[in-house]
Amino acid sequence: MNEKLDITLTVNGRSHALGVEPRRNLADALRDDLGLTGTHVGCEHGVCGACTVLMDGRPVRSCLTFACQAEGAAIETVEGLADGDRLHPLQQKFWELHGLQCGFCTPGMLMLAAGALRENPDMDDEEIREVMSSNLCRCTGYQNILRAVRAAADVMRAEGAQG
Amino acid sequence: MTENAPNLIGQSVARIEDPELLTGKGTFAADFNRAGQIHMRVLRSPVAFGRLGGIDTAEARALPGVIAVWTAEDIADLPQIDFRMTKVQGLGPYRQWCLARDYVRYVGDPIAVVFAETAFLAEDACDLIFPEIGELDPQLDPLDDPSPYMPETMPGVLSEPAVLRKGSGDVEAVFAHAAEVVELELSVGRHSGIPLETRGALGVYDRDSDTITMYGAAKVPHYNRGAIADMLRLPVERVHLSEGHVGGGFGPRGELYPEDVLVCYACRRLGRPVKWIEDRREHFLSTNHSRDQHYRLKAAIDERGVIQALDAEFFTDQGAYVRTHGATVSDLAAALLPGPYLIPAYRVAGHIRLTNKTPCGTYRAPGRYESSFARERLIDAIAARKGLDPFEIRARNLIPEDRIPFDRGIDALGTHVVYDSGKYHDLLARLRAALDWDALSARVAARRAEGERIGLGIGYFVEKSGLGPDDKVRLHFYPDGLICIVTGVANIGQGVETAMAQICGGTLGLPMAGISILHGQTRLIDEGRGAFATRVTVMTGSAVKLASEALLDQALDLAAGRFGLPREELRYRAGRIWHEGGASVTLCELAAEYGGEDGLVAEGIFRSDHMTYPYGIHFAQVKLDPGTGGVQIERYMVAFDVGRAINPMLVEGQITGAVAQGIGGALYEEFVYDAAGQPLVTSFADYLMPTAMEIPPIETLIREDAPSPLNPLGVKGAGEGGITAAGAAIASAVEDAIGRPGVVDRLPLTPERVAGWLRG
Ligand code: FES
Ligand code: FES
């Protein structure tokens, strides 16, 4: 149980060697072993989505994923979302449209939306609502989160069309 | 003489707090770490009520990596946790100890605490502690006769700590001659704030200075610092609390709980940093629950449906112990039950009852969510009896404008209840117009004729905000133009920093960019009241305004001296003071010349003995699924007079977030217990918090028609009104859809209940 496994995690493009107990979940490994505390833990039972990160581009609950399961995958966390000082369109729109209050759910919301938009950049409003309903927010009542995702999707599509 | 650049106050600017939070750089409680830290885990009672015998901790102590295991005996020098706010006497015996003594009184009651090298180990060790508990029959219904609290050790002490009584006018006399009497019995279920971040704390002890610092503080750091110092019998300077980011407050978070005290106590006694992070199940079991009230209302009305007297009795199920809030919830419920209506004679008895459930405290709009539900159900019942529409019955009962300021003749939280300003009829008329009520009613009637179960409902509320007695801030102006405001307020996610920067920038005619707010640090300022009771914008905001004005004052004096010119002839604009004759100096230059290391320093202290009373109306349109009893909210609107909105976007955000919580409490969220007192709700799979699918767009009608005369900004708090009448409006709409007046008598409106009412 307490024996440690040596694994390598690739997070935001950088690889990290670490030793973890088999029972250590990815959220704890990111937060406690790698110091990436932007990923939050709100329930540890897979409902709230605060711990959402991307694994090979798809959103996963890092509290329900063992760290050793993530070996070999490309993991993305909120710390890697911005391009240097330039905020990701999702971050920018969450900011402009007041899509956060306490900010605890925000990293999970951002990563969920980032993953979903990568899979389907053309989500309509109802699809956005449905996707975003997999994470909980206790502060905002969601409306500004939905608006922000919509607005960011539009920006990203326009940027994609240009580039 | 001052002239300012376009005013920041009143503008929807984006928040200065956000960039950190958006990039994962926030520091929430669990993000604090210290080298050498150990982890604390609490063993909690598995039964609702029982006599606590011996606790065998030998095996747990023997586990390698375990540093200490304590039970009540090991911390015998720690007293009970005291009340933060209550003037009600007689509650003392019911305070909670940090670890249970003699009895356990709810599932989740802390019995023992383990300190170990890792969090896993601490949890493993808890499984090796064996308490002997002689199980007893729990009291679960607050309406049952009070029972012995701790039968053997506190004989004669019963589970009704207090009954609050308030009133004004001659209720008996009115009832003796009443045209008609309407009676109702109503309940609001048990639910709570449930912030997305669980509680947590890191206690760090510095041996050289014999000082404890607790990271992860929230809401009321200064008060808690004093309370912890008292409990540990240390001078207050030896304890510091430090607030990082807080993942939602809403009432429960930031109160002083056993774990906070244990973390502080242990880091000093064990000489190592001690970290404790609550898990979600623990949160459901141990962090304050709320609501859970039962009302019996009796109103004397005249022929027109106008209430002449209200005789009310209610019961608050406060759970196992009386925690820091003391009698606050019942006090506020009793004081604000009459709401916006004239009601010339009023009498209320609020029973505080204890049961073997998780202890309760406040949750956003404490006592008002519940009492607004009860009162508005009563108004609807009178409307039904008199055949009046929901607007007409309210118009007949509202306090007219010429009676405001309106003195209710009773007290709340030790202050006199005087509604400071309000145009109640005007707001009602505006909502009616905004909804185009007659056309809307016609559309609904048409859909009903097609067989749809549609209903409309409204709920009127009066809130309170801006609890005194005072607030102090210190403002530093540095030569480089940066401004730092140090305040004892707390940020629980509501946007305090932005609002305070707007008030400062607005007053000085300066941009927000150079303004920073330091809060929640007892090391930096000796006083602070924190963030509760929707007091921040009113109290701290006013103090910021006064400090900004004091800075300006000081600067004008300095400039007058420097120029050798009379102060009255100087003008100010956007950071610069000048004289028509050509003399000119900037605040930066003055700070460089006259300010020391701390820059120019000004203080603002704002005092207020009275609360301000914002008010508003919720509207809901619902559609019922006759098969499942499911309630779908088709449309939701809140009309809300906030006196003055510092940042309308943030006000709207507060309203929308609060409505979502109000919908949760009205339809989905409830702590349910089985017959043995076992909680059936211990995860997010059982506690149904609304998601983006359940919350419709929220329309708002934010008004500034009745600024508060009690503070220099005219503001009233906007943090709670979005939840206050949510239960009331939704219940009203659901009952309208069911079409049988008087059936909807409790929250939450679960599908099961709604289906039952539909069947009749
Ligand atoms: S922490 Fe992973 S879903 Fe809640
Ligand atoms: S912003 Fe607080 S939980 Fe979403």
From TrEMBL, chain A:
It is an enzyme of class 1 (oxidoreductase). GO terms for molecular function: 2 iron, 2 sulfur cluster binding; caffeine oxidase activity; metal ion binding. Residues 5-81 form the 2Fe-2S ferredoxin-type domain. InterPro entries: 2Fe-2S-bd, 2Fe-2S-bd_dom_sf, 2Fe-2S_ferredoxin-like_sf, 2Fe-2S_ferredoxin-type, 2Fe2S_fd_BS, Beta-grasp_dom_sf, Diverse_Oxidoreductases. Pfam families: Fer2, Fer2_2. Its EC number is 1.17.5.2. Keywords: 2Fe-2S, Iron, Iron-sulfur, Metal-binding, Oxidoreductase. This is Caffeine dehydrogenase subunit gamma. It comes from Pseudogemmobacter humi. The lineage of its organism: Bacteria, Pseudomonadati, Pseudomonadota, Alphaproteobacteria, Rhodobacterales. The gene is cdhC.
Automatic annotation (TrEMBL), chain B:
Keywords: Molybdenum, Oxidoreductase. Residues 23-137 form the Aldehyde oxidase/xanthine dehydrogenase a/b hammerhead domain. It comes from the Bacteria. Its EC number is 1.5.99.14. GO terms for molecular function: 6-hydroxypseudooxynicotine dehydrogenase activity; iron ion binding. SMART domains: Ald_Xan_dh_C (SM01008). InterPro entries: Ald_Oxase/Xan_DH_a/b, Ald_Oxase/Xan_DH_a/b_sf, Ald_Oxase/xanthine_DH-like, AldOxase/xan_DH_MoCoBD1, AldOxase/xan_DH_MoCoBD2, AldOxase/xan_DH_Mopterin-bd_sf. It holds the Pfam family Ald_Xan_dh_C. This is 6-hydroxypseudooxynicotine dehydrogenase complex subunit gamma. It comes from Pseudogemmobacter humi. The gene is kdhC.
